[in-house]
Specification:
By secondary structure, this protein is an all-alpha fold. The protein is built from three helices and no strands. It is elongated and about 80 Å long.
């Protein structure tokens, strides 16, 4: 009976170590991928100057909703919200 309990604890220990190692590997891969993508994003931003589509947001939004009648104030508000969001994202990088 004692050997069965000891075997159970050994199995539990091996399982906990395996899960810990797997999760540690997952976190380290996620952090590495994040830093690589951040570097790529910074290089692309330096190369292209701004995010794609950041200029002419108002006309692009208005063209998207040609069939619907949108008030110009709504289009301006949406465009301002997009610019504000992008500036917050750029400040975090």
């Amino acid at each position: 009976m004692d050997s069965l309990i000891i075997s159970g604890f050994k199995l539990m220990g091996v399982g906990m170590v395996a899960v810990f190692l797997f999760l540690s590997l997952l976190v380290s891969c996620t952090l590495a991928m994040s830093s690589v993508l951040r570097a790529i994003s910074k290089n692309a931003k330096d190369h292209f100057g701004t995010h794609a589509g950041s200029q002419g947001d108002t006309s692009r939004i208005a063209a998207t909703y040609e069939s619907e009648e949108l008030d110009e104030e709504v289009v301006v508000a949406i465009s301002a919200a997009i610019r504000r969001h992008r500036s917050k994202v750029e400040n975090r990088l």
